[in-house]
Amino acid sequence: MANKNQKSRGLGRGLSALMADVVPESESSDQPAKPERFLPIEAIAPNPDQPRRQFNEADLRDLSESIKEKGVIQPLIVRPAPRNGGQYQIVAGERRWRASQLAQLHELPVIVRDYTDVEVLEIAIIENIQRADLNPVEEATGYRQLMDRFGHTQEKLAEALGKSRPHIANLLRLLTLPDEVLDLLKSGEISAGHARALVTSDDPVSLAKKVVSKGLSVRATEALAKKGNNPTQAAKPKPKSIKEKDADTRALESDLSAALGMAVAIDHQQGAQAGEITISYKTLDELDDLCGKLSA
To answer: Which helix (H) or strand (E) holds 263?
Structure first.
């Protein structure tokens, strides 16, 4: 029951409303948000459930030097700390808080919001997705968390986060790859383009190792994925149907092809109620469009 309530809450408030409070990490924004007040830095604490655990020390020092010179331009988003009166918990802006400690600031500009634990987690995930240094697997995992935990659709994510739906769909598809392949993607040994090609492979792990060892291009990887990892194992040609399709079947194929914008073939078993329908796509974008139409 809790999960259902969480999803209803997320959809009710809407991602756009939450996004309005996730301010940029950069301290050089031309239009910073106006703080509601200043709080002593010792009265502010990070969220213990923050999914981001690692902060680059060099980046923090650079941000600290900027803060020493210009101050904290973008205010932190905080909420009253649960079970700790007079204290505040960071909702968005932990990186600025850490850099401000290095800069030995005594108070910080904040905007106070009365968010629930669920909303704080949702904003933390959104803030993580906005990071410039995310690898494709981390970004895809963030989208998947927002969809699974809060019931957001790809369309809602694309609209609120300023991404295209095919971009989100392509990244989510990467999560179907084996962990061994995802590790290569996270380490940068293969690119997102390679990984997208591997999604269609019968043996993505073997092909991924071949990509790394031979330094294959994305185009070469796509060709091998289509051909199969074992070039000596030729695909058996599908036997052509001896029976000519009737006019009604051909008309239905034509109508479906026009509606989907893709080639559609219907193979109805003679004298039976069953059969097969085949939809052919030429690109991953066409597959995304098809998935969107079928999901709707």
So the answer is: strand 263-268
* Residue 15, in any domain of the structure: no
Residue 169's H or E segment, with its range, is helix 165-174
Q: Which residue has the tokens 């996730």?
A: 22
Q: What is Dmax (Cα atoms) for the chain? A: 84
Q: Is the pTM of this model over 0.70?
A: no
Residue 126 is assigned to a structural domain of this protein: no
Is 63 among the domain residues?
yes
Token output for 256: 């479906």
Question: 3-class DSSP state for residue 107?
Answer: strand
CATH, residue 188: 1.10.10.2830
104: left (phi over 0), alpha (psi -120 to 50) or beta: left
pLDDT digits (tens, 9 = 90+) for 30-70: 566 777 889 999 999 988 766 566 677 888 999 999 999 99
Give catalytic residue positions: 94
- Domain range for 214 is 176-227
User: How many angstroms separate the CA atoms of 235 and 162, rounded?
Assistant: 42
